[in-house]
Fold each of these.
Amino acid sequence: MHINLNKNYKFKCINCGFESQKETFKCPKCGGPMQIIYDNLAWVVDSKIPSMWRYKSLLPEANKLISFNEGFTPIRKIFGVLSKLETNNPTGLYADRASSIIVSSFKNKIIETSYEEDFTLSLAYYSKKAGIKLRVYVMPDNVDPQDLIAIAKLGSEILFRNEIEKSGLEYENPYTIEGLKTISYEIYEKNPKVDKIYVPAQSGTLVYALSKGFYELRQMRKDFNEYELIAVKLHHANTPEILNYSKYRIKISEVSSREALESMISLSKRGFNLKPLASAAYALARIEGNGISIITGSRKISMSESKKYSELKRDIINIFSDNKKRTAYEIWLELNKYSLRGIYKSLNMMVINGELCEEPILKGQRKIKVYWRCEDSL
Ligand SMILES: [Zn+2]
């Protein structure tokens, strides 16, 4: 079915240049982060696939493709600022792009990892689907309890530890970079008329991945118009070291905590439940103008919303008693008493919990999802 491209790539240390043909997550020479370098890069896009896997030929070999149609996220205006909505990913997080590649490439039956906010939840979701056991090491004082519940519900094993000790798979690894770089590809493909891309920077992995995507585009595409890539950090935070090694220029900017919090509040009025750092890129994009901000992720429904959620969930299940497929918009019209965003959130949760199935369909250039009750949940 798919074009069988001869994929030749190697793992290379971002810091010292050490190379290996074998899968390597940390440089054995200097401990630096590794990335994947391809021998031949060619821009081949399978435009029928409404997910980041449309760039399959530019990604590492999938052992068995595990996808919930992550990526191919929309760019929309929020209060006048163009924003790439990573919140539209299956678990509401940009990290889904990384998880999909990780579990697809993984050859073992078990993944060990230390808890990292957002990333671990996404990875647990994908591991479940892949039939891979996820073992998560957690420091009790350093965990989001809501995350922990969700991770446990997804069947991951949780082991408590008292000291910080990174072990097993970390968020920063070559597959994560490959997954996240597809954000750059999507921006190039949609070709919005902007000069700047604003990206929140904490560990720096996301910005680095986008810089890799743009660097590869520069090599592959003559018509590639360079964007100014801006890593946005909070005023008091350090500049992530990995950004020094990018071959594509990254500008480092910062916003004050106050500016980030103001944006966080204003975005919450549009239903985005973001953390201050995630709002920082948007804050700067709003100040400077003519750019796209990457909205990295939204926290799922909180405790206080859970009562309302269970009512809404019951109504949605009732609607699906006829076994027809529907879009979120159609459900919203039928129920006629909830917000469209509330419906989206609930549908997402129900898909994660296995109560509903979803499938994307392409309508023109837009990806639209239809939902139905999976047979085994009837
Ligand atoms: Zn090295």
Note: The pocket of zinc ion is lined by residues 13, 15-16, 18, 27, 29-30, 32 (CB under 6 Å).
Amino acid sequence: MRIKDFKLEQFFTKHEFTAPYLLCCSDCGSFSVGELLELDENSEEELKGLSLGYTETQGNPLLRKEISNLYENIDPDDVIVLLGAEEGIFIFMNVFLYKGDHIIVQYPAYQSLFEVAISIGCEVTKWEMIEQNNWELDIDFLKNSIKNNTKAIVINCPNNPTGYLISKEKFNMIIDIAKKHDFYIFSDEVYRFLEYDDKDRLPAMCDIYNKGISLGDMSKTFALPGLRIGWIATKDKSLIKKVISFKHYTSICNSAPSEFFSILVLKNKEYVIKRNLNLIENNLKLLDKFLNDYNHLFAWVKPQAGVIGFPRIKFNEDIEKFYTDLLNKKGVLLMPSTNFNFGGKHFRIGFGRKNMPEALEKLEKYIQEYYL
Ligand SMILES: Cc1ncc(COP(=O)(O)O)c(C=O)c1O
């Protein structure tokens, strides 16, 4: 293999379709086709007439228009639609980075955000969030990590796995540093619009920095990972061109039904986002209470956005053993931090699914039976 195994995705391959209770997913439970068609009375007829030919490589212009509406200063031509955010990460790194380049990546992270760069032969500095400081990023660390060959910073806020959301002040500091040293910022924003307080929402990177790239998708905020639709938005036209050229070797174009449903959902985005935020609000209340009730067993920084958090076990147990035993005894799946190469004490917990309260009850029973 030219690239290391993707630990988190391998973990899901093993467990996602067999574990009875998924308590670690990073999306809100999805919609059925029927539910989506109810969003617009004409949609069923339109779907019946949809051609299943090849589609435009850059993405359906109507979809690019809807995506551009998520931003302030982005035109449909500044967007390329891709096969999930994952294709966006893979192609961006392949067209932008060369062997010997250096990047600085917020950490812990979704593995492809650094692994693809490593596979190309890049030098990667992990910019670790500090748990004791509510997962804050240390700007001095960033400043001190810059080298002559630094080409980009990769950030992900709201963050997977911690739920951390950087402040606007610090966000602007990062941009100032990038401007000063003239490097790019690749900003994974797949959880944007899932801030619990609107006021905390960061500007999109592509809107405010001409060397900024915003990565978005239909999987997280819009709860439709099965569509496999993501995108890159940037003012850098030459980068868009390079991504299009590379895409001819990966997916060629997007699935027409997936583009159809993405347009439908983005036209109704307020409804979908509200549905997801309501689900999150109710579930997070329960989770926060649970983790506080058992705070002698768990440490926890409550997230500020998104559907996941990264608690730590305080008891003397290996996280792999903990998750395996819980899965075997109660059928509840947590994601061990070993999948993020981040020690042996944390686990990712997801609270975006409808059956989350039931899964949490099972976890609580397990804790009561084996740890009290
Ligand atoms: C931070 C982050 N970026 C990208 C992705 C990939 O998402 P997609 O389903 O759009 O490929 C994920 C999926 O979990 C993620 O958490």
Note: The domain at 7-32+270-371 is CATH 3.90.1150.10 (Aspartate Aminotransferase, domain 1).
